[in-house]
Amino acid sequence: MAEPLLQVHGLQAFYGESHILHGVEFEIRKGEVVTLLGRNGVGKTTTLKSVMGIVGHRTGSVKFEGQETVSLPSNRIARLGIAFCPEERGIFASLNVEENLTLPPAVKPGGMTVGEIFGLFPNLQERRRSQGTKLSGGEQQMLAIGRILRTGANLLLLDEPTEGLAPVIVQRIGEVLRQLKARGFTILLVEQNFRFAATVADRHYVMEDGRVIDHLTAAEVAGSIDKLNEYLGV
Fold first, then answer.
1. What are the tens digits of pLDDT across the range 19-41?
2. Domain limits of the chain?
3. pLDDT by residue (tens digit) across 189-230?
4. Contact 81, 153 (CB under 8 A)
5. What angle separates helix 167-182 from helix 137-149, to the nearest 10 degrees?
C-alpha cells in the first residue's frame, strides 16, 4: 500500500507545564476523511494544533508525505500543504467576504479560485461585499473553510465545523466535505456531532485522556453504537 499522507506516532504536546497529549498515534491516507472523536477536553483540538505546529511544545513524530515535521515552525508546515480551520473561525471583521477569501497567500499550486469557492458556497457569492461582522454563524463557517481552499493545501484540518449551526447549514457543510473528498482533498475532522461525522468520514479515531484508544471504519460503526455512546457520553 502507498505510504500514508500523514503519520502521527508517539505525539506528546504541552502548554507550559500542562501535559495534554500522551503518545497520540494515527494515520491518514490520501483522499480520506478521518475524524477524531471524543468528549470535550480529551485533546482533539490540541492534536490538530500539534500537527500544525501551533502548540507550546511537542515531541514524537508527525510525518507529512514522508517528511518529518515535528521540529518545523508552523509557517513551514503550512507551505508543505497543510491548512487549519480553527473552531473560532478567525474571520476578519473589517474585511468583506471577498477580501477575507483573498487574504491568505497561496502556499502551493492547485488552490481553488474564488469563483470555484463561490460555486461550493453560493451564499458567499451573494454576500461577497458584506463585512465579516454582518455574516451569520453558518456563513462565517463557510467563509473559514473557503479561505483555506485557496491556499493549495491538500490536507485540511477542520476543528468543529458544525458547532452551533442550524441543521440545514450542517447538511450543506456535509455536502461540501463530500465534494472536497471527490476532488482529492484529504480531511482530518474534529467533531462532537457523531451523527454528522458518520455521514462524511471513512474512518474514526476515538480519543480519551490525550490518547487514541480505539479505531473504527465506517463499516464498523453500525455494530459499535453502544460502545461509541459510552466513549462519547451520549
1. 999 999 999 999 999 999 998 88
2. 6-232
3. 998 888 889 999 999 999 999 999 999 998 888 788 878 888
4. yes
5. 10
6-232 belongs to CATH 3.40.640.10 = no
Instruction: Say how far residue 123 (Cα) sits from the centre of its chain.
Output: 21
The identity of residue 30, as a single letter, is K
CA 108, CA 183: separation in Å to the nearest integer?
A: 16
Contact 151, 107 (CB under 8 A): yes
Task: Please check whether residue 5 is in contact with residue 65, taking contact to mean a CB–CB distance below 8 angstroms.
Answer: yes
Kindly give, in sequence order, each residue whose CB lies less than 8 Å from that of residue 155, ignoring residues fewer than 6 positions away.
5, 6, 28, 64, 81, 82, 83, 185, 186, 187, 188
Which residue do the cell numbers 457543510 mark? 173
Nearest one of 186, 94, 90 to 143, comparing CA atoms? 90
